[in-house]
């Protein structure tokens, strides 16, 4: 039977396909039916390794849904999680969103007052937490009045004696449920998950993802020129499930049926390497600091991978040296750019058929950029007046994006961040004629010297090639004549014994022929440890604060 759709001015013919809203629960339902016996392996807070299957995960997620109903929670209530990457956290992702509630993942590495702000702003009704966050929760419970229940994710016999009111055991709650429900179907535009941005200035702001945006994001993120995921992969997200939903891996892995390895709280290089080898991990995802620590550990112990093939590097620029080192170990680097407000993926660096005919050095240059926009993302660069700039790979400007997985409004904030329908990313970038985007800097990190801009990332990429350096960061230091000049801050490898002056000279040598003289850092200083943000990136704000009295 033909059906017409009213389109304001007239009528159009409706397509005759089934109308099935894009539900998050479909992802785990699909994994449970098509990949029932594929494993999810988790390193637990309890210290042991837990393994079960997608079918068991879906069954327990249904029990979570029943628990939430029994606790009296309503549609769109916010349910907080303070948890590592693990199977119970995954059950919550589906149990909460699948019931029409909002899964609010909280980053436990934020400052305590930021966590309090976030819980109170979101008005979380329940917080599910891993045992390792007990001390934090004891402090939070006194200042987060919206929370009715605190659920510790262990068996009843491991529940500690505590002053937390309404403290419940996750396993006891689940044990009382049958799992006998069918997942509800509702409007795909309903909110499903909430993540607050780290917010280095001002209060954190919430990005509220819908079922629809999460499903669309899962589709495009898995494509061959994105994460390149398949049912034959074993995927270990090191990026935490409390940081933009671990780049969507908890949604895309069940969709493609990949085996999941969840590393829990043990994120040190030896533990990660051990898990990669023992579980035959083929692909893993993390910020550059994760990879630099792993590479250092492996070179110190003369180790190599047996099954590991793909390393996704994102969150900060991937230094060329890191790409080289991983390539030498037989690992392909997938460099991705994104941000919380984009769900989070925006671009991937990959090669086209035409690129494959270019010399290797040119191919590497393309792969070191942040890459082309994912399907569903539009990008442009603009100047300070908002005028669109030429895409010639040299001209840089403020990066603006739009798309169906891009934020429209922050949660419970009146004013929209959009400018003429575009989201200003706060990143400065170039885009070349082929569409490859390259981040030059965060707007606030770019070094403004004598009216010209110097990219701190370019400086870091060159300096990090020195084999005796563990980490580098370039920051702007106020200068009486030039307004700002670059200072390079570096951490030496632990076994470095030669003189610092010699090391400095060698680093300066690296810039020769690669960068205009006036862009080279005026000074290099060495520190013991690089300060990191709650999401594992170099904390430049803190570095600038530590070095605010520095003079050249
Ligand atoms: P977050 O919302 O915490 O994920 O942070 C997003 C920001 O991280 C972006 O706006 C960029 O400044 C930075 N970022 C993410 N990926 C990359 C990348 N591949 N290269 C450079 N910067 C990146």
Please, could you describe this protein's structure?
The protein is of the alpha/beta class and 552 residues long. It has three domains: 25-267, ANL, N-terminal domain (Rossmann fold), CATH 3.40.50; 352-442, Luciferase, domain 3 (Roll); 447-546, GMP Synthetase, Chain A, domain 3 (2-Layer Sandwich). Strands 4-3-13-12-14-15-16-17-18 form a nine-stranded mixed β-sheet. Helix 1 (25-34) runs parallel beside helix 9 (249-256). The mean pLDDT is 95. The protein binds adenosine monophosphate (AMP). Adenosine monophosphate binds at residues 197-198, 244, 314-317, 335-340, 344, 370, 425-427, 439, 442, 535.
What's a concise summary of this model?
The chain has 552 residues and is an alpha/beta fold.
Bound molecules: adenosine monophosphate
CATH architecture level-2 label of the largest domain: 3-Layer(aba) Sandwich
With strands numbered from the N-terminus, the spatial order across the biggest sheet is 4-3-13-12-14-15-16-17-18
Distance between the termini: 78 Å
Strand content: 15-25%
CATH superfamily of the largest domain: ANL, N-terminal domain
Protein structure class: alpha/beta
Which structural traits does this protein have?
single chain, 552 residues, alpha/beta, Rossmann fold, Luciferase, domain 3, GMP Synthetase, Chain A, domain 3, 3 domains, nine-stranded mixed sheet, seven-stranded mixed sheet, 25% strand, binds adenosine monophosphate
């Amino acid at each position: 039977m033909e059906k017409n759709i009213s389109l304001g001015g007239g009528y159009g013919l409706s397509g005759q396909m089934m109308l099935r809203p894009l539900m998050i629960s479909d992802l785990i339902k699909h994994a449970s039916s098509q990949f029932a016996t594929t494993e999810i392996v988790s390193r637990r807070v309890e210290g042991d390794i837990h393994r079960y299957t997608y079918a068991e995960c879906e069954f327990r997620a249904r029990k979570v849904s029943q628990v939430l109903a029994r606790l009296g929670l309503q549609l769109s209530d916010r349910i907080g999680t303070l948890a590592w990457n693990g199977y119970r956290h995954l059950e919550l992702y589906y149990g909460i969103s699948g019931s029409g509630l909002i899964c609010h993942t909280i980053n436990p590495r934020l400052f305590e007052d930021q966590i309090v702000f976030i819980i109170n702003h979101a008005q979380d009704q329940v917080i599910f937490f891993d045992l390792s966050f007990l001390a934090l929760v004891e402090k939070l419970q006194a200042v987060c009045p919206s929370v009715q229940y605190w659920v510790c994710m262990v068996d009843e016999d491991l529940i500690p004696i505590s002053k937390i009111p309404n403290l419940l055991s996750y396993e006891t709650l689940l044990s009382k449920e049958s799992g006998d429900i069918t997942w509800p179907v509702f409007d795909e535009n309903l909110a499903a998950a909430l993540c607050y941005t780290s917010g280095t200035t001002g209060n954190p702001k919430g990005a509220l993802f819908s079922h629809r945006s999460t499903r669309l994001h899962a589709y495009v993120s898995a494509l061959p020129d994105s994460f390149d995921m398949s049912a034959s992969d074993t995927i270990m997200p090191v990026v935490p499930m409390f940081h933009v939903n671990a780049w969507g891996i908890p949604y895309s892995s069940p969709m493609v049926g990949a085996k999941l390895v969840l590393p829990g709280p043990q994120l040190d290089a030896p533990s990660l390497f051990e898990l990669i080898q023992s579980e035959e991990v083929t692909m893993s995802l993390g910020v550059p600091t994760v990879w630099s620590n792993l590479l250092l550990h492996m070179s110190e112990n003369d180790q190599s991978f047996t099954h590991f093939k793909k390393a996704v590097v994102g969150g900060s620029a991937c230094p060329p040296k890191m790409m080289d080192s991983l390539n030498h170990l037989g690992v392909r680097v997938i460099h991705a750019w994104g941000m919380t407000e984009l769900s989070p993926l925006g671009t991937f660096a990959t090669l086209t058929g035409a690129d494959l005919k270019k010399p290797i050095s040119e191919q590497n240059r393309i792969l070191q950029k942040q890459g082309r926009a994912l399907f569903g993302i539009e990008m442009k660069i603009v100047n300070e007046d908002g005028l669109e700039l030429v895409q010639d790979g040299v001209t840089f400007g403020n990066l603006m994006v739009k798309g169906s997985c891009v934020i429209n409004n922050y949660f419970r904030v009146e004013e929209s961040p959009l400018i003429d329908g575009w989201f200003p990313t706060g990143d400065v970038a170039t885009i070349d004629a082929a569409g490859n985007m390259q981040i030059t800097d965060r707007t606030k990190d770019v070094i403004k010297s004598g009216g010209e801009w110097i990219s701190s990332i370019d400086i870091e990429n060159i300096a990090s090639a020195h084999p005796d350096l563990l980490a580098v960061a370039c920051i702007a230091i106020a200068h009486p004549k030039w307004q700002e000049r670059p200072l390079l801050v570096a951490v030496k490898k632990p076994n470095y014994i030669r003189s610092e002056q010699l090391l400095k000279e060698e680093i300066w040598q690296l810039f020769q022929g690669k960068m205009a003289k006036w862009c080279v850092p005026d000074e290099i200083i060495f520190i013991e440890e690089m300060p990191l943000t709650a999401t594992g990136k170099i904390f430049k704000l803190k570095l600038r604060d530590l070095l605010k009295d520095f003079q050249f």
